[in-house]
Design a protein that fits this description.
This protein is mainly alpha-helical and 271 residues long. 60% of the residues lie in helices and 0% in strands. It has one domain. The protein is built from 11 helices and no strands. Helix 4 crosses helix 11.
Length: 271
């Protein structure tokens, strides 16, 4: 999943929404009211002078091993400069809300099947429709409609996670009911894609200018961003390895606690 020139704008790596689908912030489809507000902490800029210097150092690494070492230091400095893992977790307002939405529908699919999951999201009218239409409307349903940059990053991440699910189950060729076989392990993997994409996109948005301003060519920038993405994916995967599946409860009442803990632990891994 290559990316464009660093910091050239928020992007979706795998276009999922067809032309006929409403945009992610549209109100054309029903959205059940949230049972609890997540706006306890507003996103803030942070003291990133050291984090910028650390990311610049990554672009000057002479070897893969050196780059990995500097990338680890850059991640740690970024988290600390942002106020620590707890502060980043709290400021991930849209990220946590969209993560709750995604986790909840995956939880329902594994328990009761895809038709029940659509019904619980107020999307019964999509049952039996073409798979690409269902996923387009599902992306709209799960996305945040607040319009902030942080929420837009969360929306990018959920589209990436849904694209991963779509491709893993080969839904270009298979019926939507193929998702009825979704296991907890597979749902867990989709959540990992969501979390790692969110962290990557946010980091690159906030500090990616240092990569763009480096002496790297455009192809080298793309390669470096891919390495950073892979580094984050591996860190998130390492975190999930030690999380018991039985503790991953995304039913209403547990979804907020679960996603908050996932975000906190994921940023702790980078810290």
């Amino acid at each position: 999943m290559g990316t464009s020139k660093s910091n050239s704008g928020l992007r979706r790596n795998t276009p999922l929404l067809p032309d006929y689908a409403p945009p992610p912030n549209s109100d054309d489809s029903p959205r059940p009211p949230d049972d609890e507000a997540d706006g306890d902490t507003e996103p803030t800029s942070g003291d990133w002078s050291n984090a910028k210097a650390a990311l610049t150092a990554v672009t000057k690494a002479n070897s893969g091993g050196d780059r990995r070492k500097r990338m680890t230091a850059a991640a740690r400095t970024y988290v600390s400069g942002s106020g620590g893992s707890r502060r980043l977790q709290q400021s991930s307002i849209g990220g946590r809300q969209v993560g709750r939405n995604l986790g909840r529908i995956l939880f329902t699919i594994t328990s009761n099947g895809v038709d029940s999951a659509l019904a619980e999201e107020g999307l019964s009218n999509l049952i039996g429709q073409r798979t690409e239409i269902v996923f387009a409307m599902l992306a709209n349903q799960l996305s945040s409609n607040g319009g902030t940059v942080e929420e837009t990053i969360a929306n990018i991440a959920v589209v990436e996670a849904l694209s991963f699910l779509y491709e893993e189950f080969n839904l270009d060729s298979n019926d939507l009911t193929t998702l009825d076989s979704l296991t907890e392990d597979q749902a867990n993997e989709v959540i990992q894609v969501y979390i790692s994409t969110y962290i990557f996109e946010r980091w690159i948005h906030e500090l990616g200018r240092k990569i763009e301003d480096s002496e790297l060519s455009e192809s080298q920038v793309v390669e470096l961003e891919d390495e950073i993405r892979e580094f984050i994916q591996q860190s998130v995967k390492l975190n999930f390895r030690d999380v018991p599946l039985k503790s991953m409860k995304f039913d209403r009442g547990n979804d907020k606690k679960t996603i908050d803990e996932i975000f906190k632990q994921a940023y702790k891994m980078l810290e």
